[in-house]
Design goal:
By secondary structure, the chain is of the alpha/beta class. The protein has 8 helices and 6 strands, in the order αββαβααβαβααβα. Strands 1-4-3-2-5-6 form a 6-stranded mixed sheet, with helices on both faces. Strand 2, helix 2 and strand 3 form a beta-alpha-beta unit. The longest helix has 23 residues.
Length: 193
């Protein structure tokens, strides 16, 4: 089993150093991936934190290439270090995109945590009074849900705290529709040739 230094990497969120807060105080735990949906959820979490004066814990979950099972078969510490560094870089990039490098205005802690996303987020949001905030994800077909189950659905079923699923911003739906049309036109032109 890897030690905690391999599992959790903390990132400076650029927020005031309010300490860890009391163990019984509620936090707002946000699952962050860098997607537009997770950035919308981060903004919602920060707005809620401003309203309630709660600490925000932004968590980006990652697994080594080949997942944990593949890593256990052939452990390679440099791969873990590279994976953790890439996750930290992705977390920093997501925070920069969300706040344009500015102070978020709340107590903000950020961690890149090694582990399966749903299970790890449920484990992170374990204090009384915590709120787990996630992007709602997008609609997927049965096969996609079978191969890669919904993180939001997992968290709703297993979390001991309330879970808030933030819907996609309307502009994101427009962008996805535009992308589908563009792909459809591309395939139609390929089929004609």
């Amino acid at each position: 089993m890897a030690d905690s230094a391999d599992r959790v990497a903390s990132v400076d969120g650029g927020a005031d150093d309010g300490g860890d807060g009391g163990a019984d105080e509620g936090r707002i735990v946000i699952g962050l991936s860098g997607s537009l949906g997770s950035l919308a959820a981060l903004h919602h979490a920060v707005a809620e934190a401003r309203r309630t004066d709660a600490e925000v814990l932004a968590v980006l979950c990652w697994t080594p290439p080949g997942d944990e099972l593949g890593y256990r078969r052939t452990p390679c510490p440099p791969v873990i270090t590279a994976g953790r560094d890439a996750a930290v870089a992705r977390l920093r990039q997501a925070l920069d995109e969300a706040f344009a490098g500015r102070y978020a205005g709340v107590r903000l802690r950020c961690q890149a945590v090694r582990g399966d996303t749903g299970h790890t987020l449920v484990r992170c949001a374990d204090r009384p009074g915590d709120l787990l905030v996630l992007g709602a994800g997008r609609e997927r077909g049965r096969l996609a849900r079978l191969v890669r189950p919904s993180v939001t659905a997992y968290c709703v079923r297993h979390a001991t705290c309330p879970v808030l699923a933030v819907p996609h911003p309307p502009l994101l739906g427009d962008l996805e529709t535009l992308g589908h049309r563009r792909r459809h036109r591309l395939w139609a032109s390929v089929a004609r040739n």
